[in-house]
Write a structure and sequence with these properties.
By secondary structure, this protein is an alpha/beta fold. The chain folds into three domains: 71 residues, Winged helix-like DNA-binding domain superfamily/Winged helix DNA-binding domain (Arc Repressor Mutant, subunit A, Orthogonal Bundle); 123 residues, Nucleotidyltransferase, domain 5; 175 residues, Nucleotidyltransferase, domain 5. It has a five-stranded mixed β-sheet with strand order 5-4-3-6-7, sandwiched between helices. A five-stranded mixed β-sheet has the order 10-9-8-11-12, with helices on both faces. Strand 3 and strand 4 form a beta hairpin. Helix 1 crosses helix 3 and helix 6 packs across helix 14. The termini are close together.
């Protein structure tokens, strides 16, 4: 392949990524985004139009001069992305086209991954079955993006907590072999943060922190406009800050981690103990519904103002707030976003977190950061998983 052809394909990939994130952009905006000359971008966009990847649609709003044409990815172009969100208890999956339109709706299953090869097999079967059920041509799928909790080494892309010695390879390579598609894996909280940066409350911001409130408590960091992962990819383990006075053992094997007081699993368990001790709550009958996880029932109850759920959530959120204070003092972010599964009860989290900030944070530092609730929380990890594919997309 000649150098010119290679660079043209690279620019086409950059333009398609730009349109994926920006939806509609003018030639001038694409030129600034790719840092390439306007004539070159114009020529490449015209090629993409001929190849039916891009269409011209409408004009930009008037600013007093000639209104430029706007371009977007052709919605009729068949290119699909499989997005998978794995947490400690469930797996969710959707299929998007390259315009972020869902072409196969959300499906979920209770799959708990462990070191057993059988569990990984269940995940593979779940994804394969739903790709088949979608009726889409497998040749039109450009990749599978998967978000998972836990440590992921960014360089080797190894996910130690679900790797079995029987695989004889890292999970990314193993899944790619199984699916015959490119597979990309990243930490769930990092993907949620990237989705917030591109599509949510972090859009156009340079320095944001995103709390992933779920079965555990995760953190995604965007520093200077790009994801920050630390030296080896293990950065952001907010849930293991040793702030808890509890002697309970954390899933990491240590004691004192903030997660033992702030995860949704812990909150739901505290509610169950309170019910056993005679407390009255709507959770008494909600927990009998096995169609949803206890943590989801807990969030529903808290969102409806159930006194027991609100009290337990407030205590946990205050502990989260103390952890947030450490982050504010060290990183001084522009914005902190509450996202993930727990964000549906975000308004309940905000007051105790703010109370902790008021008590423990230096005022001048606290004033520099706004705290907001995500408006894409339920979709953030899936959107992030899709962007993982887009970020690695190479025009053929």
């Amino acid at each position: 392949m000649s150098l010119i052809i290679k660079k043209t394909k690279q620019l086409k990939s950059e333009i398609l990524r730009g349109l994926y994130y920006g939806r509609q952009l003018s030639l001038l905006e694409l030129s600034k985004l790719t840092k390439k000359s306007l004539p070159l971008v114009t020529a490449v966009v015209n090629e993409l139009i001929e190849e039916r990847f891009v269409i011209e649609e409408g004009l930009a709003p008037s600013t007093g001069g000639r209104r430029p044409s706007m371009y977007l990815i052709n919605p009729e172009k068949k290119q699909y992305i499989v997005a998978v969100a794995v947490d400690q208890l469930t797996v969710r999956m959707v299929i998007y086209d390259f315009n972020k339109t869902i072409v196969f709706p959300l499906v979920s299953a209770s799959i708990k991954l462990s070191e057993e090869k059988e569990d990984i097999g269940n995940l593979i079967d779940f994804i394969k079955k739903n790709i088949e059920n979608s009726g889409l041509n497998a040749n039109d799928i450009i990749g599978i993006g998967i978000g998972m909790p836990g440590f992921i080494n960014d360089e080797k892309n190894i996910y130690p907590s679900v790797i079995s010695n029987n695989l004889n390879t890292n999970l990314k390579k193993y899944l790619t072999q199984q699916f015959k598609f490119p597979v990309y894996i990243d930490n769930d909280s990092s993907l949620i943060a990237f989705a917030e940066l591109k599509f949510g409350k972090g859009r156009d911001k340079k320095n944001i922190l995103v709390l992933n409130i779920g079965w555990g408590t995760g953190l995604g960091m965007i520093i200077n406009g790009v994801p920050y992962r630390g030296n080896s990819g293990y950065g952001g383990e907010f849930s293991h800050i040793p702030l808890s006075q509890s002697n309970d053992l954390c899933s990491c094997g240590k004691r004192g981690c903030i997660e033992v007081e702030t995860s949704l699993v812990v909150m739901a368990n505290k509610a169950k103990i309170a019910l056993d001790n005679g407390a009255k709550s709507s959770l008494e009958w909600l927990f009998n519904d096995a169609s949803k996880q206890p943590g989801d029932h807990f969030l529903d109850a808290a969102s409806q103002g159930d006194p027991l759920a609100v009290s337990i959530l407030s205590d946990a959120a205050f502990q989260l707030g103390k952890g947030v204070v450490m982050l504010l003092h060290i990183l001084n972010p522009e914005k902190l976003i509450l996202s993930g599964r727990g964000a549906i009860a975000g308004k309940m989290f905000l007051p105790p977190i703010q109370q902790a900030i008021n008590e423990y944070c230096i005022l001048k530092i606290a004033e520099q950061t706004t705290i907001e609730i995500s408006d894409i929380a339920s979709d953030a990890e899936l959107l992030g998983a899709a962007t993982l594919v887009v970020e690695h997309y190479h025009f053929q």
